[in-house]
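Re: folding output
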Amino acid sequence: MDVPMHLKGLMKKLLLLFALMIATLCSAQRLPGNVVPEHYSLKFTPNFSSSSFQGDETIDVRVLSATDAVVLNALELDIKSATVKAGGKELTAKVTADSANETITLHLGSQIAAGEATVHIAYTGELNDKLRGLYRSEANNRRYAVSQFEAVDARVAFPSFDEPSYKATFDITAVVDAGDTAISNGRIVSDDPGPGGKHTIKFSTTPKMSSYLVALTVGDWKCISGEQDGVALRICSVPGKEQQGQFALEATKAILHFYNQYFGIKYPYGKLDQIAAPDFEAGAMENTAAIVYRERALLLDPAKASVDDQKEIASVIAHEMAHQWFGDLVTMKWWNDIWLNEGFATWMESKPVAAWKPEWQISQDDVLGSNAALNTDSTVNTRPIRQQAETRNEINSLFDGIAYGKTAAVLRMIEGYIGPEVFRKGVNSYLEAHKYGNATAEDFWGAMAQVSGRPIDKLMPTFVTQAGAPYVAVTDKCENNDTVGTLTQHRFFSSPKLMQSTSDQVWQVPVCMNEIGGAGTGSCELLGPKEQSFKLKGCGHGIFANAKGSGFYRFSFDPAEYQSPNFKVEELPEEDQVSLVGNEGALLAAGVHHIQDFMALAEKFRGVPTYGAVSELSGQVTFAQRHLVSNQDRAQFEAWVRSVFKPTLEKIGMTPSKSDTPGQLNTRATLVEMLGNIGEDPDAIELAKRTVNAYMQNPESVDATLVDASFPVAAAHGDTTLYDAFLAKTKQKQTSSPQDYYRYVHALYHFRDPALLKRSLEWTLGPDVRNQDMWNMLSVLANPEGQQLGWDFIRQRWGDIQHKAGQSIVGAQFAYYAVGVFCDRTRVKEAQAFIDQHRVQGLDRVARQQMERVDQCIDLRQREEPNLANYLQKAGNGTGQH
């Protein structure tokens, strides 16, 4: 399942986290293990008029020890009949349901012996509107059936051994209406008329796989086709949108060819269908050979797509396709190792995309992802990568930024330490040893240790089994034309008080260093104890302790370098620039550095157009504007923003050119949004308005990357007339591209007029917004003019939010994450009271983490607001760095 770490905006960052945690409050209990499946024969007959389906299944099982009962997972299914054949006898089962544990028990009345048996169950279920199990989706005034079974929702579609270790083969049949078709994991092997006005589609037998990877979609799908390395490819959608899959098809070809070379195991499933569903909760789901996506994660109109739009789709496809090997072919034994699936796919997605589109400079996005993961891991209330989970809520809560982002960053660090080719050999050894089976984290890092000859089996557990990340401090001096020094480590916290506390935690940290401005090549040291000495060839003017931003740790950096004329950030590798900016923001939060150090570093980037560094700076400048600047200093801060960042915009040009690189397009867009909404620069505001007006008249007349940034600026400086025009454009969502539609949707939450923001919130709960898109209202919380308004709306309309989402846990999620935007003790008290009133099992850690973030923000503001005011005053008096 996909979590694109590079997506911009609060809604995008939180979208999947919310979606994956939507679940009933039921717990889940593991199956007894005395009966295991070998093969399922499943027949589904959906009935769209009644929003229901009939199911008929036969499961060939092995009974491991004599028993008088068979226990399976099942939830929200009406069992009509159940029989078990064993030892030449057919026994009619009495069925009892345990909804709390999401199981049914087939009581046989007498024992069956160990050996082969066959279970047959006839049942019915609901085509629900909860975006889980086998659910209904709607578009073009008709209905579709779509499956979403990860993590524990195959049991909502068919009684099953719904745990990842119970792999089996599947024969799937769909009985569908005339004019409809079906897509599943296998190829269509027959399509026969009947019964009645329906037709019956049978699919080829799947390889052994876990129940959560079964897929079925039913509707009038239209597909475009292709082929790569002998594998049949299709991109499918609702009618009228199929041509928007051309970009995805080309990306799929490049990615598949790359993976066939990289993994050493050819794509094992013969065909690959990718389906854009009108309603889908997650970004995408890696069902074996039948991946399902949100429309915006697969479909694209090239005339309306920005660089980020293209990156997002290519990266999501690469993520899901990586799972076909790492997750589907080899699957974790239990959900505590889901990080190995998701983190690996997050790490892997960059490789084929970078090979296909080197001009996108994906390595900078990797460092941005590592910075984000380090920020997530800097709180007391973070969690270890590997964490036990038994209940539904506990399992779903593991699909978070730690599983995806931190794991990807740790894998990237290990790859840098042992080398890309050795790392690849370790991956291939692991896959070959466990293909079509299950494996654990120990299996993975054991393979890496064996292939590399390095202690990866000792290194990885220090990052996987304990929470947090290290802070590596460096002291150095020049002796005999060599740099000699000391490395020390302790846990990093975004809190000065905690940074000064003692901790017994240590990591096995591969620290890769370069001497800034030196002639040496740098080196990597494996830091194991609290303190360790090192030596580098050559002497420069300081150590950069995270070369290429490849390490998962924060590092010390002398802020005096920012004042040195010899220190030129543009001479650092671009990945180092991105790492340095992210690290500086973290050191500011931790009290190691101060706001004047950050301002001095930002000024070093005047005229430096590295898009990853500019993106990181933009986020930190935005935070400062919202939380560290007093009202009386706001005008001076805006002037500082213009003085530092407008020269960069002028250097690359205000107007896009055909010769622009993707990096220049992204840098321009980021600067226009920052200068327009943070710097209140009239030229940037005018450019944004002009761009949006041109786009609304003719989308192909302007650069789509600049359009992305221009919409929030135009909205923030727009009026009711513009709002109404944007809202009217959303009505065209059935015929426009997803990128076009969501530009207008997201812009509705960036207006500054409270009355317009209130309209946006009410609209979100109305019939024009799909359930999957209601999370957009969280964007209001990122809008300074809408923060309190959005929070009040969530509290007052909590029941309506729950009703639309169809799950009782949703309102609490909104409340918990809404708290994290505050930096004000008065508002935090009411937020805490609301959370206490609506506390939900499985979200306690989330609540504590959000409250911790608020405390950190308040502490940072108290420490640094006076320093910022003083810095701006000096700058205004001509004594600053401008």
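--- second protein (sequence, then structure) ---
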Amino acid sequence: MRTEEPQTVNLKDYRAPDYRISELALDFQLDPEATRIGARMRVQRTGAAAPLVLNGENLKLVSLSIDGRTLRPAEYKLEPTLLTIHEPPERFALEIVTEIAPAQNTLLSGLYTAKGIFCTQCEAEGFRRITYFIDRPDVLTVYTTRIEADKKLYPVLLSNGNLIEKGDLAGGRHYALWNDPFPKPSYLFALVAGDLGVVENSIVTMSGRKVGLKIFVEHGNEPKAVYAMDSLKRAMKWDEEAYGREYDLDIFMIVAVSAFNMGAMENKGLNIFNDKVLLASPETATDDDYARIESVVAHEYFHNWSGDRVTCRDWFQLSLKEGFTVFRDQSFSAAQRSAPVKRIEDVRALRLRQFQEDAGPLAHPVQPQSYISIDNFYTTTVYEKGAEVIGMLKTLVGDETYRKATDLYFARHDGQAATVEDWVRCFEDASGRDLSQFRLWYSQAGTPVIEAKGRYDAGKQTFALTLRQSLAPTPGQPVKKPMHVPVRLGLVGRSSGRPLPVMLEGENANGPDERVVELDTSEHTFTFVGVEEEPLISAGRRFSAPAIFKVAQSAADRAHLMARDADSFNRWEAGQTAAREAMLAMMNGSIPDPAYIAAVGEVLARAEEDMAFAANMLSPPLESELAMAAKVIDPEAIHEARKGLVRAIAAAHFGGFEELYGRLNFRGAFTPDAASAGRRALRNACLRFLTAADDENAAALAFAHYRGATNMTDMIAGLAALSRMDTPKTDEAFDHFRIRFEKDPLVLDKWMALQAGSPRPDTVARVRALMSHPAFDIKNPNRVRALIGAFSGNQLRFHSPDGSGYALVGETVGALDKINAQVAARMAGAFETWRRFDDRRQALMRARLEAILKAPGLSSNMFEVATKMLG
């Protein structure tokens, strides 16, 4: 923990390292309280004579030598976070022995233990907590790792690369020797040791090589890793077909651990996963869990090329690997499931988190220009908005050129630490286009607003579409330049509802009914010809850019598009916009919009055509989404408006929901495929409306749904409905669930999260009580995210007018900062929107942030987040 004000790191100050480390041999003598690490590295100076500066934190230096000679104290300087060797030779072998206490490492960064398992997390700057090293991404090194431990306690010894040798030693110990032939940065180093079960399989690559696949889990969890293995095999084949990327080692391994700051980590050949995103069975995992596992397994595997073989030069290039890999995993999931539904899910998540980030004090570009703690920039802007930037590039250059550009990128930069500029240059070279303006997506923060207005000339059968863009000021960027925005659009006949051709003057009469236009100025008018009837604008199809698309349309127009638009995403978008406008009007005293409610009936009538899509169409914007649209956030009014709209829909179409709910009841064996998941999603959407009254009849139906469920998806749907209700059946169901799953922490996370998200008035008290429950452990990030994270997202109760919600989260964040600063800083983000509330709530949240900032021993992570939110 730092007591002085932390220093800012700036992109403009980047300079190449003074030394390179070509080889590193590590020797681990594992012990939970005193692990000794020997590090022998080959070092070469890259330029003029300079001191060798190595990073190190919480290390005990045991010995230090160069070319076999122990250094005298005058030859080096040891500081809390640095080891400086004053005058090293040009080339030399450096040997360092350090000692650490993994069992005491609550930061979960570096080498630590969790439930008797040794585990590492070195991204972003965790390797410096293992040994002294140049801990930065642009130092690429070949690693050889020897691990020695008690064989009975730690029979499995794993590291990066291929297993070279293993054997038994005296005293009941054993060892394993691993070598990774591919140079990598220190953040990709990994080690795992423990008593673990394994699921094994193999795959034959496109060149005919057989690769062994192993997933290591706690004993007894092997059946829960089967779906992850299936996902891995599908991801490996997809990457060969879609990107031509073949796996390069003899073995690929995954390990699931119970305490992990992130979802997973792509360490070369040895991915380490939070068990939350790896383990699944019908009794313990929902359909969303299965989809998440499929996505994360693919994401971490895809990093083998987009992140490992080609890594990032510095942490300002983080989106180079993360944005690109998110786009790859989204594309994979879309190919495995329903592409329209996947697009809706991705955009909904982007808007909920990234648009809010863009609109607040923590706004930053996809390529940040400065940071205090890099841990704070593992954000939705870097990841999800970064993925949208990749998608726009693909839209602009086309599928074929996109593949040429990515092939060029992998060939040109294999084994290198690359930059965003390197990435975009590959697209320029492959396409012949100048993408200098497009690069603004990396350097400018904020969410563009695209306004679309049209003018139809019936006599000439032309339609003049004017697009205007604007980008609001963000911290440090008061003035913005126009972005290069691909806008995918179509025209829908106002009378006929049919797709209309979208042709520019001089084009063939049989033109397309959809096209991409490029907006690269503040305003531009596109004139389309051969438009036979007055059209409705369908702009931003498939969400062609991470922007807010505004089209002036009536409620009737939106209902028309909701039913007739040829683009599935924009059908959903029209419905979401109509529902949002209806709820905002209800907050001002209006009745529920009849046009929207009638359009819901049309969706219900066609629901079985695509059940997963229909489930999304039937779900109006969440309270948190509605809050983003409100000028001043009024949590109580928002809650009542959404509840009122749901009840109005239920009243109008109760018979239809009831009939569909009964027809979708399926008692066969559970399967996690997309079609089965879609059926469950639609039936549970019906349940939401059938229980909208929150009365005793609703409670009885929700309770019967819960008790009759044969899988976790349906159980959670029943519990979610009951969580809204103050009825004995709620407590009965939650008690039954707790007792049934008391031995499964991941399932109890769901139990805690549902209670933390309840709109009931006693929610704050319940969450405080749960913090003392044996199921909760503040040292475990999963438990903190399940309870405190879920409560922070409870729009109604976190923002209780008395400030009790703020007090609960503020106190927890303060305590957590002393234990795990990375997780604490993320939890503090709950206060990000404090300026958008009424004066009383603003004062309460500001006071909590100021109290956090004044706490003694504040971490650099928390200092950066709190000062930006208050600034």
